[in-house]
Amino acid sequence: MSGASVTMNVMLAVHCKRAVPLDLHRPLKAYIRSHYSDRHATDADDDLQLVQAWRREIEKGSSESLEARRDVLLKYMRALTVMTSRFPIAPETPHLNQLAFTWFDAFASSKKASQTNIHFERAAIAFNIAATLSQMALAADRSTAAGLKAACNAFQAAAGAFAHLRDHISGKALAGGGTCTTDIAGETAGMLERLMLGQAQECFYEKALGEGKPNQICARIAQQVALFYEEAHAALLLPPLSAHFDRQWVANVLFKARHFHAEALYRAALDLHAKEEVAEEIARLTHAKALLAEARKGSKGVMQPLVDAVIKLEGHVLANLAKAEAENDRVYLYRVPAYASLPPIAAAALVAATPLAPLLDATGERLLAGLVPDGSAKELSRYTDMVDGIIRTQVERMERESEEAKARLRELGLPDVLLALDGDLAPFVPAKLRDDVEAVHVSGGPAGLPAEMAQLQDLRRVNEELLVAAEETLQLESADDAALRAQFGTRWARPQSSTLTKSLKERATAFAGNLKQAKESDVRIERDLRDCSDMLGALGHSKVEDALPRISRPIVAVHGDDHALVATIRQLLAELERVGAQRAGVEEGLREMKARDNILAQLMNAPGSQDELFKREVAKYDPLCQQVDANIAQQRKAMQQLEAQYQLFSQTFNIPEWKAEVARSVKRMEAAVSKYQELRANINEGLKFYVALQDAITALKQQCSDFVMTRSMQKADLIADLQRHLTGLSLRDQAPPPATAPPRAAAPPAQAAAVAGGRAPEPYPGPQAAAQGQGRPVSPKGGGGPLQFLQQHLPFFNNQNPQHPPPLQQPAATAAPYAAPAMQAPQHAVPPPQQQQQPPQQQMGYYSQAAPPPAGAAPAPYYMPPPQQQAAAPHGGYYSSGQPAPVYGQAAAQQGGQGQWSGGYHPQAYGSHPPQAMPPLTHTSTLLGDTDAASLLAFAPFPSHPPSPSGIPFLPATRPPFLSSLVPYIFLPVLPACVSSVTASPSRMSCSMPYAVLSANERVSALL
């Protein structure tokens, strides 16, 4: 069978209306000046000139392109919308009565009409917008896919513009009085809308042919094209269009209608031939042949391309008809039915008019925004409040009814119960429970808890093993120390391990207690896990719905067919849903009516009271209010029927018992989830605890190891020192006495007591000898100097603040036999360096200077001489809070400020055998040579080494090489805090402090 090729038919377009030039600027500005003010007229001048420019461009029709013309028309149309609410253009309005809008008819160019009515102007502009869109569609290149789509869209937009003219503007233009052209009448706009839709549908037909769509689809599209053209042709035959349009318009529209009717029959015949339905094929082709013949007969005035297309189609129809008849005569021998007995071809409408209203929305326009009369604005606001009250009342009524219906449905459990009947129990599962169960399974579920519990026990076992290892380390070291103490007796003067490891053992004991409590908690968790295994079994389903009971259908239907009962309930629910949707439409209708309700023009024209106008305008909302009443009544009736049917349904399916069982199942699962979360939280807390405790025990174990290592090093050093001590005593006993002895001072009573006790007194150089350098030991060369030793062992030499241990408190009853005599208080005094930064009321002693004491500070009768005086006075003074100190070296410990020692020695440092004491010696020494060991040791504590049992720092057993010559004398500091005045610099250091000279035996005793 032959088929027609794709042919681009000729389309029809509409010409624009022509306008008579009109001056808008002068009358509108005069009106503004007279009804508003000169300022308003000046402010609106630019907007008026812009509006005038748009109309002049429309009058001339000189736009460069159809798109530019369309844009200008749309701008002017929005301006007219703004002007409609601000200018009551009417013959009786002063100034505005000069605005006579005159337009020519688009289809009868010799006819024109004029009105002083802005709606007449708006109707003409809307017509020209639609005409311009039809011309844009005609200008598109339909041979391409893009051009065909553009043409189709433009025809649909033109149809929307004509529909807007018919529905919203034409009636107001005709009601304005005066003459009016037929082209803007509603009948004309309706006819042109159908014509534009037919041509848009024809574009779809061309697209379907080009894409090779099935013949059945093409037939349905062509049938709809024919229907659109037939509707347009029918409108052209009725008045007032029958006497207005040229015969060629009627002929072309009728020709296209017959053409596409025949096209639809031809495409349907092709489909029938493929199905071998020859009889119906012959009937449809025969009717198509008749239609084409009639079309050719009425082709006078029809455009030749349309005639050529019909002739071409007729050739295809005749050829296919001859072949079909021949096949039927030779093969099928079917009886050909009458065409009237055949079903009509179903049309498929693929196009619709595109609304023009969005393009004409002037809501955001700022044009002439300041022109609103005060009186009209107030009256308009009052009317708006009335309308808002009506709408608010009706909307609240509908919302209240909707909420009541929803609440009642929730009480009944509808439609959730019907969903549960079908197996969907999701509505009965709380969202939180669903999320919690999902989280339980994501985290491993109850099956994963034993593994986590085992991990908890492993961590506890690791911590216990670490703690046992730390305790064993301390026990082994303590046993080793006890063995050495038993071996060396009192010579093993190192502190016992029990005194040094007290804090470590306390921490270990605390950790052991923590582990014990944690183990008890683990046992409780494990017991809970065993006891709750049945409860946790409720979490075996990954979905909560699977664990809920189902609704059981009755074995015997007591209240009739249960299926019919369920179907009735579903119908009533659907009725409620329909009523609700209808309610939304009523509410939307109320809001749309309010949006379209603009009575500003009436307010500006109506004299006197506006109450009658408001009453008349508000009455148009009555039909919608009646719809609200009807809607509410329908809902109440449907709800009553639904409640009655649900009672039967609930009894038939035992819904109350089922709901109770569902609630119990939900509670069981919630309890199981809560217990699972509790167990998991406890296990996680235990894991965190054991991880943190493992770090702490590991640190304790490392500290124990470090302590044992340090003690091992001390043990080695102490054993080596004991060995050197024993060797030194042997050599000293064998050495001959010195040839000459250094000058000696008179032996004090203590020294005599030492001789009487059988211990040789130790000589010490006097002040003069010390000043001359006699008796000072000299370190050997090449063994390292004091400067290096200071940098390594003295923090304050490197500008640091050494941390002094707190002063030792000596009982008041103990008195050393060596005391420094008090000196006469000077006339003027200032506080010592240690107290110069304190408030005056806290200053206790003073140095003598020429300046008077500071204000508010009372002179103290007892003081310590300044360093300048200590060199001249062999016996220094002491710090005191107001009472003389009879014991040299004791006053500072008992009464001095902040533990500042005045000199002498502390009896606790050396037990019951105090050494010979030297008077306080103040000297300034250069600390750069190797011969200054006395100055170095006079004030040098060694904080890097542990203190002696009495808290006094002592020299390390391993001394620097330059100290090896200090036998038989060695100088020790009395206390680290005894330095009363220290001034440090890179090269010099001045110190005021006493020091003591010990014998070799006492040196060993002090070291131990």
Notes on the protein architecture:
The chain is an all-alpha fold and 1008 residues long. The protein has 31 helices and seven strands. A three-stranded antiparallel β-sheet has the order 3-6-5, covered by helices on one side. Strands 1-2 form a two-stranded antiparallel sheet. A hairpin with a 7-residue loop joins β1 and β2.
Descriptive key words:
single chain, 3% strand, two-stranded antiparallel sheet, 1008 residues, 57% helix, three-stranded antiparallel β-sheet, disordered N terminus, mainly alpha
Give the SSE map.
Blueprint: H1 25-35, H2 38-43, H3 45-60, H4 66-84, E1 101-104, E2 112-115, H5 118-139, H6 145-174, H7 186-210, H8 215-236, H9 247-274, H10 278-297, H11 304-332, H12 357-360, H13 374-412, H14 416-421, H15 431-442, H16 449-488, H17 497-500, H18 502-531, H19 533-536, H20 562-596, H21 600-605, H22 611-618, H23 622-653, H24 655-734, H25 749-756, H26 767-772, H27 786-793, H28 867-870, H29 891-895, E3 921-926, H30 933-939, E4 970-972, E5 982-984, E6 988-993, E7 996-998, H31 1000-1007
Antiparallel strand pairs: 1-2, 3-6, 4-7, 5-6
Helix pairs in contact: 3-4, 4-5, 5-6, 6-7, 7-8, 8-9, 9-10, 9-11, 10-11, 13-20, 13-23, 15-24, 16-18, 16-24, 18-24, 20-23
